[in-house]
Structure formats: C-alpha cells, structure tokens
Amino acid sequence: MYKFFLIVFLVAFAAVAQAQTPNPKFKQALADSLGADEYGMKMYTLVILKTGTNQTTDKAVLDSLFSGHMMNMGRMESMGKLIVAGPLSKNALNYRGIFILNTKTVEETRALLDTDPAIKAKVFDVEIFPWYGSAALPLYMKHHDEVKKKDF
Questions:
Q1: Residue 99 pairs with which residues in a beta bridge?
Q2: What superfamily does domain 27-147 belong to in CATH?
Q3: Which InterPro entries does the protein's record reference (predicted)?
Q4: Which residues pair with 142 in a beta bridge?
Q5: Boundaries of every domain in the chain
Q6: DSSP per position, 34-94
C-alpha cells in the first residue's frame, strides 16, 4: 500500500512540477496584445444561430437578408469582433451556425447582433454564451485568405 501512495505522490508531484515549467516559446508582448491570461486564454462570446420564427420562403427577401447577413459578418470581422463563423450541418436542434465574438459583455454582443438583417428579421434567433478559448484564436483569420479559392 505504501508503494501505491508513493507512486501517486510522485506522479502528482511530476505533474505539478511540469505545469510550473516556464514555456520557452512564450512571448509577453504577443500575449499582452491579444489579452491573454497566464494560460494563453481569454473570454469570448459564443453565439449559436438557430432557425428563427420568420419562416418566409420569398427568395428575393431571403437573398437580401442573407446578403446583409454576410456583409454584417464582414463588418464585424473588419472591426476585430468576429473571430470565428460558420454554418452547422442539419441537426435536430435547428442550430444553423456559430459566431465566436471578441466581446466583453452580453450588451456589446447584442448591439453587434442587432445590426444583422437576418437576425433583426427573425430568420435567425440567437443563443449567447460566455466562452473561454485561446487568446491566439484571432490570428488564424490572417491566413484564411491564403487557403480559400473563392468567396461565398
């Protein structure tokens, strides 16, 4: 039994010691510029877009709303607020897509979402959640144009 506790203690001690080892790749200026905490993480807002109450089938109306939706996403991205966006495959919960926004409050998030024509018209409803993720997440966007062949 003594050996068991000794092994557990040594494994736990090794894990704590390893966790406290400084990261040789750490860049303080980069961490500060991205708002990273000591774990390289920060709070964002996760928005789940789901099918709304507006069930219009008018193609011209939907085309206009989705065009405005895409323009609004581009605007939020240029502001540094939209970090991740994308559609979801068909599912039983009627979830349609996600946004990860670089916002600090629900009020700031709602103000951005209120500028989206598809949300305002209730084609989409939203669910909003605080989300803790890598502070480096915004850096992937600068490479997106290098991997896409065409726009939507």
A1: 47, 85
A2: Dimeric alpha+beta barrel (3.30.70.1060)
A3: Dimeric_a/b-barrel
A4: none
A5: 27-147
A6: HT--TTSEEEEEEEEEEE-S-----HHHHHHHHHHHHHHHHHHHHTT-EEEEEE----TT-
Q: Per the structure block, which two tokens stand in for 100?
A: 């990860």
Percent of the chain having pLDDT more than 70? Answer: 86
The tens digit of pLDDT for each residue in 67-126 reads: 999 999 999 999 999 999 999 999 999 999 999 999 989 999 999 999 999 999 999 999
**DSSP label of 9:** H
Element (H, E) at 117: helix 117-120
- What secondary structure, in 3-state letters, does 85-116 show? EEECCCCCCCEEEEEEECCCCHHHHHHHHCCC
Tell me if the pTM is above 0.85.
Answer: no
Which residues contact residue 114 at a Cβ distance below 8 angstroms, ignoring those fewer than 6 apart?
A: 120
66 phi/psi in degrees, rounded to 5: -70, -30
At residue 6, the pLDDT reads: 44
Q: What is the Cα–Cα distance from 85 to 100, expressed in whole angstroms?
A: 7
Cα–Cα distances in angstroms (integers) from residue 86 to residues 23, 70, 82, 98, 102, in the given order: 32, 11, 11, 6, 15
